[in-house]
Amino acid sequence: MSNQYVTIFSDSAAAYATNDLAKLMQIAGGINIEIIELSPESIKLVENNIKEIAEAIYHKKQTTAWAWSQSTTGEEKDRIVKNILSSQGISL
After folding, report:
1. DSSP per-residue string spanning 49-79
2. Which residue of 27, 52, 53, 84 sits 20 to 30 Å from the alpha carbon of 60, by its own alpha carbon?
3. d(CA 75, CA 88)
4. Does 36 lie in the same domain as 78?
5. What is the structure's pLDDT at 72?
6. What is the pLDDT of residue 60?
7. Do 49 and 68 lie in a common domain?
């Protein structure tokens, strides 16, 4: 069995274990498995998956790491470092 199939199986098992129907549908589409019409329960599950992903993205964007990765100038990075240090009670 090639590594590609091992990865597909592993990703599918993880998506199944977490009820990530959207991911399972994405995987199925990628390997040409026809997707039948979804039940209202399945649609609700996909909507919940989307909501959870959106919330996770929102929370990641609130982190210092995100601010650092998005900063484009040395001044912005200096401000972030100063905020981190001041939150730890360290002054410069």
Report:
1. HHHHHHHHHHHHHTSHHHHHHH--SHHHHHH
2. 27
3. 20
4. no
5. 93
6. 95
7. no
Q: What is the pTM of this model?
A: 0.60
Do 55 and 67 belong to one domain?
no
pLDDT in tens, 18-37: 988 889 989 999 999 988 88
Residue-number span of the structural domain to which 85 is assigned:
63-92
28-17-44 Cα angle (round to 5): 70
Widest CA span in the chain: 62
How many structural domains comprise the chain?
Answer: 2
The stretches in the chain having pLDDT less than 70 are 1, 92
Cα distances from 77 to residues 69, 73, 80, 81, in angstroms, run 9, 7, 5, 6
Q: How many CB atoms lie within 10 A of CB 11?
A: 16
pLDDT averaged over every residue in the chain: 90
